[in-house]
Amino acid sequence: MQALVLAFVGIGITVAVYGVVALIVKADDVGVTLAKSDGRSVVGGLSRAFGRALVLGMPGFLTFLGAAGTAAMIWVGGGIIVHGLEAYGVHSIGLAINSAAEAAAHLLPSASEPVKWTVMAFLSGIAGLLIGAVSIPIVGFVFAPAWKLVKGILLKPQG
Predict the structure, then answer these.
(1) What is the pLDDT of residues 26-62, one digit of tens each?
(2) Three-class SS of residue 123?
(3) Of the four, 23, 35, 68, 149, which is 20 to 30 A from 98 by CA?
(4) Which of helix, strand or coil describes residue 45?
(5) What percentage of the chain exceeds 70 in pLDDT?
(6) Cα–Cα distance for residue pair 6/19, rounded to 1 Å
């Protein structure tokens, strides 16, 4: 029974997420269609105005969504790496983040749990940002040229 419920919830969440993504992707097309509608009636005028607003608002919304998604990936990635390091015996970073969160929680006892969560999320994001800042040059200056060299050797024309 538990497996069926988990499968049903998993499928439902997947359908919902892909549905929202499809709506976002097609929102400007819907906006263009609404903006072209007959504006002679009150409903037609409202749908035209809504369509124009949708078309004009999508670039800003997508910019915001891109920034929020990037921030979320940095935060989640930092948390995954911190927890992964703990699994390999490197506890110092996780302990430092947890200690800072505990200290902040003691400063505001009435909201200790939200404060603790916020500090841990923020510091995990900082860890992800630092790891990304170190990784980008390494990938760009070491791994990418090495991969290009390997590809050149492997794909060298036989002759």
Answers:
(1) 998 999 988 888 767 767 788 888 999 999 999 999 9
(2) helix
(3) 68
(4) helix
(5) 97
(6) 20
Question: Quick check: 98 and 120 in contact, CB under 8 A?
Answer: yes
Q: How confident is the model at residue 159 (pLDDT cuts 50, 70, 90)?
A: low
Single out the residue of 49, 6, 54 nearest to residue 27, CA to CA.
54
Read off the amino acid at residue 132: G
Closest by Cα among 32, 50, 30, 48 to 40:
48
Rounded Cα distance between 26 and 19, Å, is 11
Q: What is the tens place of the pLDDT at every residue in 66-81?
A: 999 998 999 999 999 9
Q: Rounded CA gap, 144 and 34, in Å?
A: 46
What tokens were used for 111? 């909201």
- pTM for this entry: 0.65
Query: Which token pair is 118?
Result: 């916020």
- The whole-angstrom separation of Cα 95 and Cα 118 is 16
d(CA 92, CA 104): 18
CA angle 5, 7, 13 (to 5 degrees): 100
pLDDT at residue 155 greater than cutoff 90: no
- CA dist 78 and 93 (Å) reads 11
